[in-house]
Prior knowledge:
Layout: H1 2-14, H2 40-48, H3 54-58, H4 62-69, H5 73-87, H6 94-100, E1 106-107, H7 112-117, E2 123-124, E3 127-132, H8 139-149, E4 162-167, H9 174-183, H10 188-193, E5 195-199, H11 203-218, E6 223-229, H12 233-238, H13 245-266, E7 269-274, E8 276-278, E9 288-290, H14 293-299, E10 302-308, E11 314-320, E12 327-334, E13 337-339
Parallel strand pairs: 3-7, 3-10, 4-5, 4-6, 6-7
Antiparallel strand pairs: 1-2, 8-9, 10-11, 11-12, 12-13
Amino acid sequence: MVSKEVSDIKEEVTGKKTEKKIKKKEEKEKKISDLPGIGPTAVQKLEDAGIYDLMGIAVLGAKELSEISGLGEAVARKAIQASRKMMSLGFQTGFEYSQKRIEIKKITTGSQNLNELLGGKGIETKAITEAFGAYGSGKTQLGLTLAVKTQLPHEMGGAEGKAVYIDTEGTFRPERVRQIAKALDLNPEEVLKNIFVARAFNSDHQILLIDKVGEMVKDGEPIRLVVVDSLTAHFRAEFSGRGQLADRQQKLNKYMHNLMKMAEQHNVAVYVTNQVMANPAMMFGDPTTAIGGNIVGHASTYRMYLRRGKKGSRVAKLIDSPNLPDNETMFFIGEKGVCDEV
């Protein structure tokens, strides 16, 4: 089903038939129901709790699994041990780890300058890429561009998949997506059909939508990108004042971990935008500071600061990365979305 979906996306969006076909998995994937002591009732309870695969079981404690599934702790412990054995969890050599990273996909931003800043080809799956900056700095435009670009074939910088757009501030604009698609000679209506949009009205709803993404992937949707625009708007509004800061950070921390877990499990790229504030303690230099503090900073794999530049340009500065040096570059926003020149 997934193979057909991906093939359909390439045909519909580009208007061309592709000769390349995705190979079906030779080995049957192990399911939760294959674990000892896990029957249909327990499987249903686990799925209701957002756990669909062996990794979800392997990372739980016996008591936690028992409470979710209704199984005894002894049975839960055996199921966890079995899942860890099937998943081959534990240490591995650096070479083995590097082989696993071959499955990581890259999604072009539309700007070669911005791609180079992020390692050469754009944002990557199994990672969280955060962009923070003042309004008008290009955060949402980058998100919309990525939602279109992720549908392209690999040879065109895409990931041959669909996108999920979690909108917390009412910033998603179908007409802008159509404009970007037309400028790229794509079918605007088919491009829109391959973007799933949800308007999150509070932080709890925002958290729930991440579980929904897991359900969609389980149902066969080839999702390769999740955009959260913006990450901190609801958390900032609902937890005001220093007295609620600890509660906000704890909830935000759990949400960031859920995002990373989803990205890892389903090989999905996560792009989040973040609001900023002015740091009054900053006497010299740029006082702009991202909301969320160290919680968001540590959880994000790649972190960029976007700001307006000269003559309509935007400047992106790479603040944090596990493998790239701090650097900055310039890009523009035009009919094609994010680009190198207009």
